User: Fold these one by one.
Assistant:
Number 1:
Amino acid sequence: MDCPVTPVMIGDIECGGKTTPLTIIAGPCVIESRELTLRIAEELKTICDRLSLPLVFKASYDKANRTSSAAFRGLGMQEGLAILNEVHRQFNVPVVTDIHLPEQAAEAAQACQLLQIPAFLARQTDLLVAAAKTGRPVNVKKGQFMAPTDMKNVLGKLNSAGAAGVLLCERGTFFGYGRLVNDMQALPIMRSFGVPVVFDATHSVQQPGGLGDATGGNRQMVAPLARAAVAVGVDAVFLETHPDPDQSPSDGPNMVPLTDVQLLLKQLKDIAQLVRS
């Protein structure tokens, strides 16, 4: 994809364009504990430093859209943001988390260098405007119910509110019952808007409600889809990881085991370099 894009600064990381490395946005789905979050962050930082890939650490303090009301949601905003701020300071990496309500934006922006809008909320104008006004860049996940061209209106809302930078993220589209599919055409379409594009490799393999009271998934498809997206041409790859995904309280079936991350990122780096050459 040779469309020129306006790079976005995430902390001291420049994301976007043919001359910048592939940005990695990675971490656990939800903050389970301080100790586990720091452990994952340290391992990801080591891997990305080894591969010379920029890392933005991701974790959610609250999963407000769980399938079941009984499901674990996280540690809450105050404790979660404190842990994310510790990750940022200890490992010198930008951090990102989801926000779900306009009133959460300003507080989250004090701890995070990037704010993320969940896919189900991609059209929520008040939330987008609040995120834009924080002075932080914003990563918006394309709604599973939206066409890639619909994201141009989302971009317009953010730009009109003075966003410091915008990334658009593809994470699959609903198809039939309990299934997401990826249309790789969405990647160049969204990138033609002049902004960096992110491919969410782990949420793309979700099977919403596939376990009855929880979301299922097929982590075996993460690597093939991620490789395909980088071959098409994206600026960043988003993936969730855990030392023992099957024991994770959220999104375990589609997360990459932490022991498998280095090999996958090495493959993605090699593909990105080939495409950009």
Note: The CA atoms of residues 245 and 252 lie 5 Å apart.
Number 2:
Amino acid sequence: MKKYISYIYVVLGAACWGFIGVFNRILATTGITMGNRVLIRNFGSLLLMTVVFAFIHPQVFHIQKKHLPLFLGSGLLSVVGLGWTYFSCQLMCSLAVAGILLYLAPSFVVIGSAILWKAPLTRRKIAALALALCGCALVSGIVGGDVKASVPGILLGIGAGLCYASYTIFSHYGLAHYDSLTMIYWTFLVAGLASLVFLDAPAMADTLRQPNGIIGAVGLVVIATVLPYIFYTKGLEGVESGVASVIANVEPVVAALTGVIFFNETLNIWTVLGIILVLTAAVLLAKGDNP
């Protein structure tokens, strides 16, 4: 039973991440700047995590000073960089396109692992990379041409995938010294404080006076950031990380469905085929390093 609950936690975490686009677009209707949106997610999540972890896991507040550069990297690149590129992509492309471009991340991790840790590029990995590339070409609208996407949006989506992948790289080193909740907290401590440079106080006050501003801010922080990180991390206690990464592919599917349900976006046959190819690539990557 405990194992099944762990699977449920992973699914819940991935599904919650899939709602990022909904709350991002709700906030966009208030006229809020991109910087303030990044600030709401990162600093708001930092505040909430500080309160939650103070009660359930106070060990997260203690690290060694020599590891600060690690968290500077994960906070600035993996979270602040991801927020800026992914939020921008979601406004220029459909949520299906943005979500699936983000899931180029496993392919980037494979390439990074080969460069940094000399991990072998097996036939399985090469096949997965080819599938991911073909899938993203289909989702981007190269075939069919009626999907909402733009060249800048696609480039931002690829950038988001790179930022997302960087968190796995930083975690590879961080988890050798700390538990996953500590890794998450200090990443968001850096990201939250760094995001204060984006603060436009008058615009922020105007946004938070609007119902859509409150709904978008609370949803982005609680539903699309803090809860999924806690759910996913909790699930990893009973689910092998490779299996969890496969289950996490629920996220782009949920992102695509939210675009259809909330914003009347369409999914043509090429988009669906592209999603299937990218998810298949992620499954292949998670199955191991066998040739």
Note: The CA atoms of residues 111 and 241 lie 19 Å apart.
Number 3:
Amino acid sequence: MARVEPFRALRYDSAMAGALDALIAPPYDVISPSQRNDLAARSPRNIVHLTLAADEAAAGPLLQAWRGEGTLAVDATPALWWVVQEFTGPDGVRRERAGIVAAVGVEPYEQRVVLPHERTHSGPKESRLRVLRATRTQLEPIFLLYTDAKGRPRKALAPLATGEPTLVAADKDSVSKLWRIDDPAAIAAVRDALADAQLLIADGHHRYETAVAYHAEDGTAASAFTFAVLVNTVGEGLEIFATHRVVTTLPSLDGLQLEAIADGPIAALARVAALPYDHPAFVVHTREGTWVATDQGSTAFDVARLDQVGIGERTYTPVATEAIAAVEAGEAEVAFLLRPTLIEQVQESCEAGEVMPQKSTYFYPKLHSGLLLFPLE
């Protein structure tokens, strides 16, 4: 059973901390060192001073100092939050995505309540555990998916998310608007609607596994929960974008059927996008030419079949023109351009107890960190 509950959010007091735009940041794991420095320079109270503290052990005293001076304060009563992110995707299309911010019970994967779709690594989990021990606060929400064809959580919450949002913050990628909702009937409706839901991790695998590990060592009722933005796979604007591979050395393409495309890589990508997903397909682009690669003898996902090629050293980008430009500039030998992974493929993989190759999905936009925090108290 999924445990989805309201919570008492820890959040910035703008009178003390300043405008939220200067305080938010992307999730810790997508921030480069230079971007971290830029964010830290925006404000001495930007959330990266906690999520990417120069000294992880010092994150706890810093958080307590901010609470002591009133920079951060805990809401008096628990609530759910309705969040809408407005954004322009990598494809140039303007969209919005809606979801719920709530406390979520942490469950080992074996319970089949919360499921992963990607592998994790020990280093990031060790780092997140040190920060969690120091702060006893979940600093960033996890991004979870559920499926409710009737849209019951939206029907309960969206009608109450009217008027001016409680919180608004923006960066170059998106605008987040949040409404605080403490109506008992709406909360009960959401709790009931999601009680039997299976939750899939879109982003935040390392943080979720860290929450499970921390509860195992801490054992308190408070640490039995983390917090998350939960988005319905039906009707809430969820989009998965492709992550293209930029590779230094062209690998062997034995076993793939190759069709040369004279019109170039963008035309080839459009050709691939029009193909059915029952067999893998992707674009191979080099300075010598462009091909559509397929494998009619395989039912593997596109990214899984490409992984079997053994592509070696690579970088990733969600923007096809960036991958193409890297090849044309001689920075790489080949770009593999991919279709977005379907949400049905992610669900199929999770339900089978499998994990997908790294960067199989690109959920955009990333959630903003710093809007709400979840103290374990």
Note: The radius of gyration is 22 Å.
